[in-house]
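Hi L., both proteins are below.
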Amino acid sequence: MKLFLLSIATIFSASLIGLTPVLAQSQRITCLRDRNIINCSEYGSFKYSSKNYNNRKSIRINCFRDRDIITCPNYGNFRYSSNNNNGDWSNNNSNIQTEINNLYIQVLGRNANSNELRRYNQAINNQSWSLAQARRNLANTQEFNQAISNIYREFLGRNVDNNGLQSYRNQVINGRSFEDVKNEIANSPEARNRNNNYNNNDDYNQSDYNFEERIKNMLCQSTGLCF
């Protein structure tokens, strides 16, 4: 009996030893899911297919990195560019450009042009920039400042204040999308109050107009002076 138990223990130990290298290759990371975009700040972002991505709320999800593959349970997996994966991927530049374009959509709300793709591609390949560095760089551009200020003017009727600008800059750097920021501002209490004031002013102006029309009709009927 002792010999049998010893054999079982030996087999079990050998199994654990065999599994150790595989487990060591997998690293748990936290990513941000925003609509149909999964953003893993140090590794890039990718789109996934879902019928429920219209939910505006951004949530953090747990993913796993194994060499150059990011796996997010229930959302899929994607390959990212890494200098340490010892792999030779023929589509590396194409993948990087896709990630750069996703960054432009996430940070500035638009697609990157060819010059911008080339510039950031060179920075990543030749200067060892990470996608997180590129994202931070975009969020610190004058274009980003102007884009946020434009949203403030459109929905709040004023320029963005320094605290608001820095707050949204930090949120975008940490994974939040430009579209999500825009939706939040558009649906903020300040924006709703502004819309209500406009509606009240419209009602007031319409009431004044109706009163003036009644006075004109009375004058026309009583005096014959019609305007």
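That was the first. Here is the second:
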Amino acid sequence: MLPPFLLTSYHVRHPYSAVLIILTNCPLSTAKKFRYVFYISSFFVLLDFLLNLIGFPNGTAHTFGFRTKEEAFLTTYNGTGAPAGWNWCLSYLATAGILIGFDASGHVAEETKDAAINAAKGVFWSTIVSGIGGFLTIILFLFCVVC
């Protein structure tokens, strides 16, 4: 059973996945109409992110309380029984998911106008936005998740 404050984000992901599967598998007559699939899926991803930003602190404040600065930044918890070095390596994998897809505009560059400039801008800004969102998520987890 999920904690009550996680239910909001959890319930957004399943309809989002269903809508994305339906929209990507339905035949669209033009590529111009496919941009609406992007808009809808981007909306659900941002909604999920915002619900996490709102739900985690709200649920933490109403249940067990926030961690202190010392607990958040200076303590570690090894609940796996694995060596500490292995957990340190795995901690990088937890944040690697943030950077997945930042290079997507480079892959579709041949279909864009003025690709030499716009593809580079897309990779640059998606990396910046992913970094900011990832930093906020990591800080959120450090203060809200109690082991």
